[in-house]
């Protein structure tokens, strides 16, 4: 009787454990199914969440490719691209190679001037009056139309034949740009045939061509009084100044000179890396 009761208890205990194990086994697939369903639902709401590693990798590859493209393009431009290269210089728009010097034909005392610097005169107009040793009064006349740029003698002075009386910018001569370089480096860029960009008052920008270059400098003080206008950017005193002349195209609108300007000498193009690192001509 005892044995039978024990066997019954054992069977009862075994049955309970099997039921618990069966519920656990049944619950596991249910939990797994719930997790999979949640992941699929999230993937529908946010496409790509089920592939985070692959998606980020593709974006990084695209960004890296774009960066390499930009760096490559920039490097190619630095190596093979070009930039305009110019040199700004003070200049003077006038006529001919230099102001024409009007001289006294006879000896005499300079009585008075009839004009002043900047005066526009016509051919034959009286510039000054002289009194000869015989007491005769003579007129010093403009040989051609133009602009008086300087008075070269003092009233009351006794002049010899051929003495300078006035300087005249002759309007009939070709329009000319005089360039002034104030350093040896700038002077080295003044080469015949080189293009000069000239801002013509009221006419935009025109291209002139350097035709003459003075090989030796002059003292800046020798330019004082030669023109009726100041020359911004040109030094004074004994400082050296190199000069050159550029010819404007013949179809340029005729201008009354002299007019001070700042022009740009075209030095051609240079590579961007030369501009960045300060190399190349005219750096």
Q: How would you summarize what this structure contains?
A:
This protein has 283 residues and is of the alpha+beta class.
As residue ranges, the low-confidence spans are 1-8, 270-277
Helix content: 25-40%
Q: Write down the secondary-structure element order.
A: HHEEEEEEEEEEHEEEEEH
Structural class given helices, strands, pairing? alpha+beta
What is the number of helical segments per DSSP (H or I, 4+ residues)?
4
Mean pLDDT: 76
- Strand residue content: 25-35%
What composes the largest sheet? Answer: 6 strands, antiparallel, barrel
Give the overall silhouette: elongated
Q: Reading side by side through the largest sheet, how are the strands ordered?
A: 1-10-14-12-11-15
Distance between the termini: 119 Å
**Cα-atom radius of gyration:** 46 Å
Number of β-strand runs: 15
Your description of this structure?
The protein is of the alpha+beta class. Helices cover 30% and strands 34% of the residues. The chain is built from 4 helices and 15 strands. Strands 1-10-14-12-11-15 form a 6-stranded antiparallel β-barrel. It has a 4-stranded antiparallel β-sheet with strand order 2-9-7-4, with no helix packed on it. A 4-stranded antiparallel β-sheet has the order 6-5-3-8, with no helix packed on it. Strand 11 and strand 12 form a beta hairpin. The longest helix has 44 residues, at 2-45. The radius of gyration is 46 Å and the shape is elongated.
Annotation keywords:
disordered N terminus; 4-stranded antiparallel β-sheet; single chain; 34% strand; 283 residues; alpha+beta; 6-stranded antiparallel beta barrel
